[in-house]
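Supplementary Methods S3. Complex input for the cobalt (II) ion-bound model.
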Amino acid sequence: MMSISIKTEEDIQGMRIAGRLAAEVLDYIGPFVKPGVTTGELDRLCHEYMTNVQGTIPAPLNYCPPGYTPYPKATCTSVNDVVCHGIPGDKVLKNGDVLNIDITVIKDGYHGDTSRMFFVGEPSILAKRLSEITYECMWIGIAKIKPGAHLGDLGFAIQQHAEKAGYSVVREFCGHGIGKIFHEEPQVLHYGRPGTLDKLVPGMIFTVEPMINAGRREIREMGDGWTIKTKDRSLSAQWEHTVLVTETGYEVLTVSAGMPPPPAFIDPSKNSTVPA
Ligand code: MF3
Ligand code: CO
Ligand code: CO
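Predicted complex, serialized as structure tokens:
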């Protein structure tokens, strides 16, 4: 059986750099998210920024897990009822749309993976609340991270918060270990029971990336082999950070100047900033 890798100090330095760069792509693209722009144009801008400004490689491009066809673009743009893995294309964004942009860069062999929600013009009250609750879900999960905690503690806390709000947690996709490999052990479920699954150890790095639906949790896959939508066509939201388990708790690696602040319930001393 494969096990969860423990990163070296050198790995951690590389992951801090990759994480910050991934977050900075999201900082860069935010102002371009406006009515009339296409998801393909947003992808093109991100791709150029990664390649020409950062010197990073977009990890999704040609990514091909077993059973999949190669992913054709540099980013994922998941609009409205798209849960994840939306392929950028000629879809024109209009006022009231909400979308997740998911960025994974490779720098010096290390992966940084982060996503945020964006509103096109003015969001509906539902879309705004769903995005806020999902953001809290991500941070509630992150806040559980410390040596000795179990992955089930994160999943349970996330699921409780989502369901208390009347929303549901997507089960088919999860967070993941990450490093020199895009997706590695462990699987980080966004539902579960406290005290179950792997015990956390300093030096583990994984993502927390809950997908929360306004309606039922069931999903369906589109014919393109990638795009996942809610089965009931309800809105779906997602936020993602890459996080290191430290001796005392956690360090979020996908930080940048433009990232939204953590919710008020987060202890700022654990929300480390990154050495440049
Ligand atoms: N970035 C996604 C994640 O958070 C994975 C996207 S795979 C892709 O794990 F090929 F669709 F890009
Ligand atoms: Co991820
Ligand atoms: Co991602």
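Residues 76 and 102 are 5 Å apart (CA to CA). Helices lie at 9-29, 39-54, 125-143, 151-164.
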